[in-house]
Write a structure and sequence with these properties.
The chain has twelve helices and 16 strands. It is of the alpha+beta class.
Length: 438
C-alpha cells in the first residue's frame, strides 16, 4: 500500500488495520539522546481512543503502545547513563489491538457487501478487490489515527526543545462555536484536560499508575501484560467520575476539549440531542503553532501552508483553512493585508489574517489553521446502499455502535499531524540556514 509515509528529514511510516494484529509506526530522523516512554505516548493516545463516554464509540481499545526499537537497551559505556534514550536509529512503536473479538468481526463480515454511505468501503473495494481489509474498515478506519498521534508525541517533544508549541482544540461542534480566547489560556486548559483524562482513565491507572510497564522490561514481558489485559478488556469499567467535580477541579469538560467550559457544555448537549435523533454531527478543530521562526517552509511544492493542507489526509476532514481562510473572499485588500511596523528593533504585524504564513514561508507570527470535520457517517437510521458485488440496491440498517461525533476524538490527531509537518520543515530550515555563507 503506497501513501503511508510522510516527511523527508523526519519521516513517518505507518501500517496496520482496525482488526489486524495492531498498528505500527516507524520514525526515521529522531535525534539521539531523547527520553521517550510508552507512558507519555499513551497519555496522548488516550485522548483519541474510543470507549471513553457518551461522545465516543463503545469499542474498548486499550491503545497501550510498545516501543520496539530505537532506544538503548542499557548504558552503552560505563559512566554514560543513556539507557532508554533514543540512539538515532529508526524508532518503531507498536500499538496492538486488544478489542477485536470474533463477534465484532462477524458483525462486520456479515454486512461488508453493503458499504456504509460516507465510508471508504465501496472505493476501497474497487481498488483492492475481494482482498480489501474491510473488517472494521481496515486501514480506512479512524483506528489508524492512533499511529499519527504516537508519531506526534515524538515530534512535539523535539519541537518543544526548540521553543515551538502546537496546540489544537475543538473550536466548533454541532453548530456551536467558542468565543476567541488567549492562546496561553488555551494552552493551560489543554494541560488541565490531559491531567483530568489521566486521572479518570482506567487503563492509565491499571498499566502505568500501577507500574506494570517497568524500566528495562523486554518486549515479551510487555506483550504478556497486554495479553492478560486482552482477557479482561471488556470487563474493565469505562471511566467513572463526577462530572461536576472534574469541572470544578480542572476547569474543563471531561469528554470534550473545548477550552471554554460553558461552550463545551453547550456543544456536548447539542451533540447528544442530535445523536438522540439518530443522527451525527461535525465541527471545526483549530490548531495554533507558536515559536516558529520566520522563513520556515519551502517554495512552490513544499509551501508551509500547502503542507498543512495535508491535514486533509486525516479521515473525516473536509476542508482546511489558514488564517482568515474562506473569509478572505469577502475582504478588501486593506482589510486582508497584515500591515508591518518596527518597534525597538522588533517586527510587529497589525493583524494575522495570513495565519502566520506568506509565500509559503512562516512570518514569525503564530500559525493558525482550522480543519472542518464532517458528521460521523455511521448513523442510527436506515440508509440506501448497494451490494458491492452484485450491484443490487439494498437498505443498510441503522447502526448503534458508533461515534455521535468525530470532533471529540480528532483534535489530538490534528495536533499530532501538524507537529509532524512542522518538525520536518523546521529540520529543513535548520539544515539550510547552517549552510548559508553570511
Amino acid at each position: 500500500m503506497l501513501g503511508c509515509s510522510y516527511g523527508n528529514l523526519f519521516r513517518t511510516t505507518v501500517a496496520g488495520g482496525s482488526y489486524q494484529e495492531g498498528l505500527s509506526i516507524n520514525i526515521q530522523g529522531v535525534p539521539p539522546g531523547y527520553l521517550i516512554t510508552e507512558e507519555e505516548i499513551y497519555r496522548e493516545l488516550m485522548l483519541r481512543k474510543p470507549g471513553q463516554g457518551e461522545l465516543t464509540s463503545p469499542r474498548r481499545e486499550a491503545d497501550v503502545p510498545i516501543i520496539y526499537s530505537g532506544l538503548n537497551v542499557a548504558d552503552t559505556m560505563p559512566g554514560f547513563p543513556n539507557e532508554g534514550l533514543t540512539n538515532g536509529t529508526p524508532l518503531v512503536i507498536l500499538i496492538p489491538n486488544v478489542d477485536r473479538h470474533f463477534e465484532h468481526i462477524e458483525q462486520y463480515r456479515s454486512t461488508n457487501r453493503t458499504p456504509r454511505p460516507g465510508h471508504a468501503s465501496y472505493a476501497s473495494y474497487k481498488k483492492y478487490g475481494e482482498n480489501d481489509d474491510a473488517i472494521g474498515a481496515g486501514f480506512f478506519s479512524g483506528r489508524y489515527t492512533s499511529t499519527i498521534v504516537a508519531a506526534g508525541v515524538v515530534a512535539k517533544k523535539i519541537l518543544k526543545d526548540h521553543g515551538i508549541s502546537v496546540i489544537a482544540y475543538v473550536k466548533e461542534a454541532a453548530g456551536i462555536s467558542m468565543p476567541n480566547m488567549d492562546i496561553e489560556k488555551i494552552r493551560i486548559a489543554g494541560e488541565q484536560y490531559r491531567e483530568a483524562r489521566k486521572e479518570i482513565d482506567p487503563i492509565y491507572r491499571e498499566i502505568f499508575k500501577n507500574s506494570l510497564f517497568k524500566k528495562g522490561m523486554r518486549f515479551f514481558e510487555k506483550a504478556l501484560v497486554l495479553s492478560e489485559l486482552e482477557k479482561r478488556i471488556t470487563a474493565i469499567s469505562k471511566p467513572s467520575y463526577d462530572e461536576s467535580e472534574i469541572k470544578g477541579r480542572f476547569g474543563v469538560h471531561p469528554e470534550l476539549f473545548c477550552p471554554d467550559l460553558d461552550t463545551a457544555d453547550a456543544m456536548t448537549s447539542e451533540i447528544m440531542k442530535i445523536a438522540g435523533e439518530g443522527e451525527s454531527s461535525g465541527g471545526v478543530v483549530e490548531v495554533v503553532i507558536t515559536g516558529v521562526p520566520a522563513g520556515v517552509g519551502e517554495p512552490v511544492f513544499r509551501k508551509l501552508d500547502g503542507e498543512l493542507g495535508g491535514l486533509m489526509s486525516i479521515g473525516s476532514v473536509k476542508a482546511v483553512e489558514i488564517g482568515s481562510g474562506i473569509k478572505a473572499a469577502t475582504m478588501k485588500g486593506s482589510e486582508s493585508n497584515d500591515q508591518i511596523r518596527s518597534e525597538n528593533g522588533k517586527v510587529i504585524f497589525s493583524t494575522n489574517n495570513a495565519g502566520g504564513i506568506t509565500g509559503g514561508l512562516s512570518t514569525g507570527q503564530d500559525i493558525v489553521a482550522r480543519v472542518t470535520i464532517k458528521p460521523t457517517p455511521t448513523i442510527a437510521k436506515d440508509q440506501m446502499t448497494i451490494d458491492k458485488v452484485s450491484l443490487e440496491n439494498k437498505t443498510l440498517k441503522a447502526v448503534t455502535r458508533r461515534d455521535p461525533t468525530i470532533v471529540a476524538r480528532i483534535w489530538p490527531v490534528v495536533e499530532a499531524y501538524t507537529s509532524i509537518v512542522i518538525l520536518d520543515l523546521f529540520m529543513h530550515h535548520l539544515a539550510y540556514q547552517s549552510l548559508k555563507l553570511t
